Predict the 3D structure of the following.
Amino acid sequence: MNFWEYLGSRHQQLLADAYQHASAVFQCMVVATVLGVLIGVAAYRSEWAGNLATTATSTVLTVPALAMIGLLVPVVGLGVAPTVTALTLYGLLPVVRNAIVGLRGVDPALVDAARGIGMSGPARLLRVELPLAWPPILTGVRVATQMLMGIAAIAAYASGPGLGNEIFRGIASLGSKNALNQVLAGTLGIIVLALLFDAVYVLIGRLTIPRGIRG
Amino acid sequence: MSTTGGRRPGGEHEVRGLVFRDDGEAETEPEPEPRPPSPARAGRRISRQKLTLLPALLIAVLLATWLWFRQAELDPVSENALSDGRVSKALWQHVELTVISTFFVLIIAIPLGVLLTRAAFRKATPVAMALANTGQATPAIGLLALLVIWLGIGRRAALIGIIVYAVLPVLSNTIAGLKANDPTLLEAARGIGMSPLGVLTRVELPLAVPLILAGVRTALVLNVGTATLATFGGGGGLGVLITTGITNQRMPVLVLGSILTVALALLVDWLASLAELLLRPRGLEVGT
C-alpha cells in the first residue's frame, strides 16, 4: 500500500485525529492567551513581578515535554487531562513574555496623553495600552501555537488526543508495511495544521492590529 | 518566524531571539525602553541571584526525591526497572546524547550560518530561513520516527534526529545575529583595509558572540528535551524510565524519570547561562 492509498483508506480516522489535534491546540491556546495576557497585565508595572513571571514561565519551558507529561500523569491521570494541562502551561510562556515586553514598550507619553483627556485606568489599559501591545502578543501566540503542535504529538503517548496517535501507532508497529505510512501521515498532518494555523494568525493580525500602528 | 509574514509587527525583535526556548536575553539585556545607564550591571545582579537560586532548588528537589525513594516500597516491576544501575545508565546515556548532538549541531549550524551570510550565498539566506520555519512546524517525535524507519532502530537514528531538529533554530539564530551587526562597523573595518576574512574573524564574529552563545544554549536545552524521545527509537536516555513508568503504570519509575529529566534540563540551562555570562566579550557589556 503506498502513501496515497493509505490516505485514501484511512482518511476518516486521519481527519478525526487532525480535528482533535487542532481543537486541543486551539482551545489550550485560547486559555493560554487569556491567562497570559491577564498575567502580563498584572505583572508588567512592577519590575519584580514582571521578572518573576518571565523567569517562572521560562523555567516551565525548559522542562522537556515528555517529563512534564510524566509529572502530570500521577496527578491528573492519563488521557485528555495531562495533555490539556501541559499544552496550556507551555502555551503561557511566549504570551506572558511578549505581553510584558509589549506593555512595557508602550510609549509613556501616549499613556500620559490618554490620562490627560480624562481616560480612567481600565480604559487606558483596554483602549490604549493593550491595542498597542497587541502585535507582540499575537507574535507570541503564533510562536506558542507552533510549539504546541509538536508537544500535542508527544502527549499522545499518555493517551492524549490527536495526530500523535498515528505516529505512535507507527512506532509500535515498526517493521510492518504501514509503519511508514502512519508516521508520515501523522507528521505531515501536523506540519499542515501548523502552517494553516500560521496563515490564520497572519489573517487575524491583518484584521485586529489597529491601522495606525501597522508597519 | 521572520519570513512567513511580509509585515512584521513591532514585537518582532523580541521574538527573534526566542528560537523556541531561548530566553537568556530577556533577563540580561535591557528592555527597549530607555533606562538609567546601568542596565548591564542591573542585569548581571539579577542573573547572579538566579544563578545561586537554581542549584539550591535543584539540590533540594533531588534530595527530597532521594529521601522519598529510600523509604518507598517498590513492587517487583518498579524494582526491576530501577535496579542494577539502570537509572545511572539512563542518565549517562542522556548526557551523552545531549553533548554529542550539541557538538554536531554547533559545528554544522554556525559555519553554515557564516557561509550563508557571505555575499556569494546571500541569495540562499531566505531559502534557509523558510526551511527553518517549516522545520519548526515539524514535530520532533515524527521526525525521529521517520529516521528510525529509515535508518533502523538504535542510537544513530536518535542522534541524527536530535541534531536535525536543533540545527535549524541555531542556524537561524546565527544568521539573525550576523545580520544584526551594525553595517557601519563592517564598513569601517573594510575602510581601514581589513581583508574579508579579517572582517569576519575580528569584527563580525566577536560582535555576534552573544547570539552564538544564545544559540548554544538553545541547542543544549532543545537537545535535552529531544533526547527524552530517543527511547522511542531505541536510543536510551531518561525517556526509558518515563515510558516504562507510563506503559507499566508504575508511578515511582515515572516520577523518578521525570524529575531527573527536569533536573538535568534545568542544570544544563543553568550551565549555559553561566557560560553566556562569562564568555560575553567585555566590550559589549555596556551600552548594548
Remarks:
- The first helix of chain A runs from residue 3 to 43.
- The mean pLDDT of chain A is 88.
